């Protein structure tokens, strides 16, 4: 894996048909360009936005529609897709679920947001996930988390203990706290010596304005690429040997004193 493309899009509020069209257009555009992208990343809840009160109508039943739709695109363009997250309706409730597809169009991972964000009433409409977001993409161990999850360094660290090289983050992060977004993502990259590839949305809904600034941070904390607040595709190249180099220079994983830590 080396080249990533982040779809920093506007999300039509509670309108899956429009959002599916936007996503398909963007994926086709990326894959028919000469960019040779390996992984495409979409934002959090890209099919519906934060239309939480209507989730009973618009959540995807077991994610079936999305899995078929994105799986076909991944297969026909032979591209890996981190399909942001979608509201997935299950027997026990609706989850905010990330879907990861490989180049054969196979769904290789589902991760449901572990930390629900009370400031946006998530706990009233969604149920939390209870398992990790680890997966292999083109032979590299990667992790995926969703938005508010990045405020929990112990959760991100849990994903990093097996030589994980890339952390994918999908979000609908509001504009008033975009400085937190940047600082948290840069910190997660530095403290875990990994790439952080983070896709946010732009635009607004009836309750929030969203801040864009999708970003790719390198394992030394350097900004590889960063978007502004416009609708755009953010491209960046990842070099896994940089991760090895940084981890050799400052060996934080072997220097940890776990006997001192309280979790
Ligand atoms: O933590 C934050 O400030 C934003 C989190 C958020 O918007 C979310 O998890 O949906």
From TrEMBL:
Signal peptide start-end: none
Gene3D superfamilies, alphabetized: Carbon-nitrogen hydrolase
InterPro entries: C-N_Hydrolase, C-N_Hydrolase_sf
Species of the source: Evansella alkalicola
Domain CN hydrolase: 2-240
Protein name according to UniProt: Carbon-nitrogen family hydrolase
Annotated Pfam families: CN_hydrolase
UniProt keywords, alphabetically: Hydrolase
GO molecular function: hydrolase activity
Hydrolase listed as a keyword: yes
Protein family membership: Belongs to the carbon-nitrogen hydrolase superfamily. NIT1/NIT2 family.
Tagged with keyword Disulfide bond: no
């Amino acid at each position: 894996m080396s080249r990533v493309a982040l779809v920093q899009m506007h999300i039509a509020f509670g309108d899956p048909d429009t959002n599916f069209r936007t996503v398909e257009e963007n994926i086709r555009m990326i894959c028919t360009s000469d960019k040779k992208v390996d992984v495409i990343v979409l934002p959090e809840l890209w099919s519906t936005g934060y239309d939480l009160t209507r989730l009973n109508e618009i959540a995807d039943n077991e994610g079936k529609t999305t899995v078929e739709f994105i799986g076909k695109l991944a297969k026909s363009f032979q591209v890996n897709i981190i399909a942001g997250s979608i509201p997935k309706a299950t027997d026990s409730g609706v989850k905010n679920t990330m879907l990861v597809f490989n180049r054969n169009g196979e769904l290789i991972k589902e991760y449901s947001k572990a930390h629900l964000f009370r400031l946006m009433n998530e706990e009233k409409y969604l149920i939390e996930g209870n398992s990790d977001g680890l997966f292999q993409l083109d032979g590299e161990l990667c992790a995926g988390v969703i938005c508010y999850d990045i405020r929990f360094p112990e959760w991100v660290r849990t994903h990093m203990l097996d030589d994980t090289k890339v952390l994918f983050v999908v979000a609908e992060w509001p504009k008033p706290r975009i400085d937190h977004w940047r600082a948290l993502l840069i910190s997660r990259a530095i403290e875990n010596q990994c790439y952080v590839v983070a896709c946010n949305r732009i635009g607004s809904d009836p309750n929030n304005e969203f801040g864009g600034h999708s970003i790719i941070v390198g394992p030394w904390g350097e900004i590889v690429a960063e978007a502004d607040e416009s609708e755009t595709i953010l491209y960046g190249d990842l070099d896994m040997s940089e991760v090895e180099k940084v981890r050799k220079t400052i060996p934080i994983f072997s220097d940890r004193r776990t006997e001192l830590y309280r979790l």
